Amino acid sequence: MKPVVFVTRRIPEVGLSPVREACQMRLWEGELPPPKDVLLREVADCDGLLCLLTDPIDAEVIAAGARLRVISQMAVGVDNIDLKAATARGIPVGHTPGVLTEATADFTFALLMAAARRVPEGVDYVRAGKWRTWEPMGLLGMDIWQATLGIIGLGRIGAAVARRARGFAMRILYYDPARRPDLEAELGVEYAELDDLLAQSDFVTLHCPLNAETYHLIDERALRRMKPTAILINAARGPVVDTAALVRALSEGWIRAAALDVTDPEPIPPDHPLVSLPNCVVVPHIASATVATRERMATMAAENLLAGLRGERLPYCANPDVYTARA
Ligand code: GLV
Fold first, then answer.
1. Nearest CA to ligand 1 atom 1
2. pTM (2 d.p.)
3. CB atoms inside a 10 Å sphere around CB 9
């Protein structure tokens, strides 16, 4: 008997076909995530679950999956999954680190440059028929070359952003609970306490996971410490930033601009103030959205799923303590 798996959305075929071959695959064909009741019903008789960051895999879902042997998420972040509940049940959780690092770092720079040089405003300007002449003081932005970049979270993606920043001759500060002398030497990045990083940076970019320590890390106090000319970039997770405080910061000029790939709530409603503020660039969580990256993520998610179903250690496991807890 082939194991039964539920796949919560259509993913690139390179990831689906090995799953279809090895398993009795049930695929949610909806454009939107399956509703909670569907998720609860589907996991009830599944051996494996292949899910996305939009699926709330909470303790209730995990408890409903009485037969679940593996959860494999096609994303690097797993804050939507109750890892503790999965570990307690002995269920390994797979994720997709590494393969989206460069695409996400590229996109972080796209956001940074779009906000600094007011690219979306320029596009709107031309589309609205307002371009009548070269304007000596029109759409002035902020310099990137030799500016100070503050990276919060110097993991794989933060370090990849730092590598790009060197090409712009930026001074690079970082804050991370784990000091990284190896990267300080390799990339010439300087460690700074969070408050110092916020006060000194022209650009503050977030690359930390969402957890209890990072929830609302960028709150009113943090935003008020930033320079009035500074730009905030978030390609991590929406709730790392206090949205209400950011709206006030952008409306009242505590900071100059923001560029967000992720928001809280997500998706953000089109009538939300962040969407209409001219100094805020919002895009729909697309930092890893390149053809090749999404194919690599789908492949890795399938590898994790199939390894778990075979009872093997997951190649990329987000809760490795599940193995030591069992031993
Ligand atoms: C995207 O946000 C991911 O976590 O992979």
1. 75
2. 0.97
3. 18
